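Continuing the batch. This is chain 6 of the set; chains 1 through 5 are on the previous pages. Same settings as before, nothing changed between runs. Recording input and output for traceability.
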Amino acid sequence: MAYKSKFYCRHFRLCFVGLLLFQFSFSQNFTKVDQWLNANIKDLGGRAVIIVYKDGKVVYQQTKNKISRKQKIGAKWVERKTGNDIDLSDFTVDSKQRIASCSKWLTAALAMTFVDEGKLNLEDSIGKFLPVMTIHNKGKIKVWQCLSHLTGIKQIGVAASMNGSNDDIGEEPQKKLSSKEKLDKLKNKKDNGWNSMNEAIDSIANIPIEGESGKTFHYGNAGLQIIAAILEEISNKNFETLFQERIAKPMQMKNTDFGNEKVPLAAGGAYSTPNDFMNFLQMILSEGIFNHKQIISKNSIIEMQKNRVATDANIVYSPAEAGNWGYGFGEWVMDDATGNNRSNAVTSPGLFGTFPWVDNEKKYCSILFTFNLKSKGRNEKNKELKRLVDQALQ
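Output for chain 6:
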């Protein structure tokens, strides 16, 4: 008996040491991700959170806070110029910040809940719900085209105060905003000039058409604002209430909203936290399921992840940060998926640097959560980060 006890004890110790070595080995896989974060934290605005989720659990989580004195002075200067308070406290997984164009993913997901219920069809013409669009010869634009920036509407001046950057307001590509212009737009970000959703849609209806709908891609805000108005018409509820009832509450996104504004900006007005947005990404990764509840159907998730921009489409404007990516519903497709092929990986990065993505092939999701206006080289950095996470999970 003594011999057996010693044998089992020794066997247990070996197993325990083996488990420790396995955990240590696994954690070392993310060393290059740690190095990337340390090397780029300055360009990320001095604060960043990275979370990676796979196989039902968080497998990597790192927070870095290293705001330089120069960055603090710059933030205070922006604060004085815009009149907007800038929170410089250290980031945590529960820090809440504006996520800009990451909002597009949320709005598209909300729309698909109505598609699942049969209250909205992707082939519906928007004039069916918004007569003002028919009056201005835009009534034949399809719902799916609104979700994919293929309305053919020129976009200039559409909610120009939304994000304060070419990439999110749909400005012509040759027109670059100066620092002063960006500040002016940020100063007005809480006042888009609209007193109601109807007023917002009236202003969009009056904007000229620049190309054929379905064949003219212009990344911007008009399409998703139209979608927001349609959802309000269908439900007789405001957009914020719909988002909370159908997306935020079922997925325990307690700190995510569209700013509780008079007219929510569907394409760029959301605020969220790393933990909250990870819940959303988990739902996308799990084919529409969160906590055993089907939020969106699997079919709708797949439809969102198909590239809708044809190879012969007229690309009026696509932000440099998107590189050569295609576009689905509220999200970029990160590979060469075309036609009815589902993308292997999708993302919806925002103006302020937050970069969430879902990799269907490698079956994981991740988010880089930051707040920084510096966009130069961002696409390359995001691709490098994803490549390093891919390698770590091999």
